[in-house]
Every structure is written in C-alpha cells, then in structure tokens.
Specification:
The longest helix is centred in the middle third of the chain and has 11 residues, at 38-48. 15% of the residues lie in helices and 30% in strands. It has one domain: Beta-grasp domain (Ubiquitin-like (UB roll), Roll). It has helices spanning 38-48, 56-59; strands spanning 3-10, 22-27, 60-61, 64-65, 69-73, 76-77, 93-98. It has 2 helices and 7 strands. It is globular and about 40 Å long. The strands form 2 sheets. Strands 2-1-7-5-6 form a 5-stranded mixed sheet, with helices on one face. Strands 3-4 form a two-stranded antiparallel sheet. This is Ubiquitin-related modifier 1.
Length: 103
C-alpha cells in the first residue's frame, strides 16, 4: 500500500530539491504486509528526489537525517514520534529544516 505525503524542505534545503520547498509524493510500498515507516521515506527521498549525488551528504549522514536538520512529523519533533520507525500515514506532513548556515 502506498502513502501520500507532503514534504517541506526549509532553511535552505530546498536548494537540493530543485529550489522547491513543498512536494507532494506518493511513496510506494515494497511489501503490502509491512507498513511504510519514515526510514522508507528517507530512502525514497535519496533514491528519487536528490538529483546530484553530492547533495546526498547534505541531507544524510550515517544512513539517517544529518544532525542539524530539524525533522518534524505533523509539526511534532520526530524524536517524540519514534524517529525512523514512525509509521507513515497518508496525509502526513514531514518537514525538514536545516539549522546549519554557512558564513
């Protein structure tokens, strides 16, 4: 079963996503008997949305969201929602905001 998710890339992260802050995506399931989790969404983003392989390290470190990127699930810190194990539901809004700024 696939899920429809709204993604927000803020704080300069939009630069690696064709300068678009907001995206609506349908994340396909690879196994109908297993629910999609945030880890699946992260893999989807890396595999399908980041065009330049050099930009992956801006978003990912050690196979998870890079430290310094605030991740919210429906306006709640992902740490309170189970981080990568959060079970995705259609209609979720996942926001990624970089708190890292060059100078």
């Amino acid at each position: 079963m696939s899920v429809n998710i709204k993604l927000e890339f803020l704080g300069g992260l939009d630069v690696i996503f064709n300068s678009e802050r907001y995206h609506k995506v349908t994340v396909p399931s690879t196994n109908a008997s297993t629910p999609l989790i945030l880890r699946d969404l992260i893999k989807y983003i890396v595999d399908n949305m980041i065009k330049d392989p050099k930009d992956i390290e801006v978003f990912i470190e050690n196979d998870t969201i890079r430290p310094g990127i605030l991740t919210l699930i429906n306006d709640t810190d992902w740490e309170l929602e189970g981080e990568e194990e959060y079970v995705l539901e259609s209609g979720d809004v996942i926001s990624f905001t970089s708190t890292l700024h060059g100078g």
